[in-house]
Specification:
Helix content: 10-25%
Radius of gyration: 20 Å
CATH class of one domain: Mainly Beta
Strand content: 25-35%
CATH superfamily of one domain: N-utilization substance G protein NusG, insert domain
Number of strands: 7
Shape: elongated
Strand order of the largest sheet: 2-1-7-6
Number of helices: 2
Largest sheet: 4 strands, antiparallel
CATH architecture of one domain: Sandwich
Amino acid sequence: MLTNADRVALVLALAALPFVYHHAWSGNGAADSLVVSAAGQTLRFALHPDREITVQGNLGPSRIEIRDGRARFVDSPCARKVCVLSGWHSHAGELAACLPNGVSLTLSAVRPAYDAVNF
């Protein structure tokens, strides 16, 4: 059966749970670079200065915009344009992909919040 010390330990553990969750799984913070994978190659771009990049995919060119430390697909030759509709991405670890065209965007930071153990 539970003793008083067990009950106190259980209450303290349950009270600490939201803080642990927030610390471990809250947003990764701002990204500082963009990794673009397309046609078997990986390209890395800084998120400053603002620019537009065209990357050749399986179906044709995808246009990617970098502005104000954020990135997004502007246009892609895929039919449903889910990648374009995903909007702006600005936090480290975020991913956008145009699967039919084989182009993906991944935002990264110098010091990622997750490692292989807790990811």
